[in-house]
Design brief:
Elements (H helix, E strand, L loop, with lengths): L4 H52 L8 H9 L2 H10 L40 H7 L4 E6 L6 E6 L4
Antiparallel strand pairs: 1-2
């Protein structure tokens, strides 16, 4: 059975979103490992600075403000532990039958999915438009001398 345009659009969008999720996971893993390595290096440098401070009787800061704040929040072993608790691509991919919604017609292009929204914008029916504007709006009406504007809050009717 051939897929409808709606189902093909869903399949294309889902594949793109899964690729994007995998890419972000890969980057997060790489940066977490780099951060853990940098924090370990800063701890080694702090130990050397402490030894120099006591040996030469000086008081030089052992950490930068950023490293100090990062070490207050997390330790390198915490990052390594988080990385060890999961593996890349561990999420199970379940592919279900794609429901055939919207009468088989594809949905409008959406920039959220990396698509170029071209053409005429879709205008919702009158009832849907009224529901969208049910929030209070501010109307400015000129009143009195001097052309001062008074703000009147009017609730839209449903």
């Amino acid at each position: 059975m051939a897929l409808t345009a709606y189902q093909l659009q869903f399949k294309r969008r889902m594949k793109r979103a899964i690729r994007q999720r995998a890419k972000s996971d890969q980057k997060a893993r790489r940066y977490a490992q780099l951060l853990a390595d940098a924090l370990r290096l800063s701890q080694d440098a702090a130990a050397q600075m402490n030894a120099l401070n006591s040996l030469y009787n000086v008081d030089v800061s052992t950490q930068t403000l950023l490293v100090h704040d990062l070490l207050d929040v997390l330790q390198p072993d915490q990052l390594t532990g988080l990385l060890g608790q999961s593996t890349p691509g561990e999420e199970e991919q379940l592919f279900n039958l794609i429901p055939d919604g919207n009468g088989g017609q594809p949905l409008p292009e959406n920039p959220l999915f990396g698509e170029l929204a071209a053409g005429t914008p879709i205008i919702p029916p009158v009832q849907a438009a009224k529901r969208l504007t049910a929030q209070p709006s501010i109307d400015k009406h000129p009143t009195g001398a001097g052309g001062q504007a008074a703000e009147n809050v009017a609730a839209a009717e449903i």
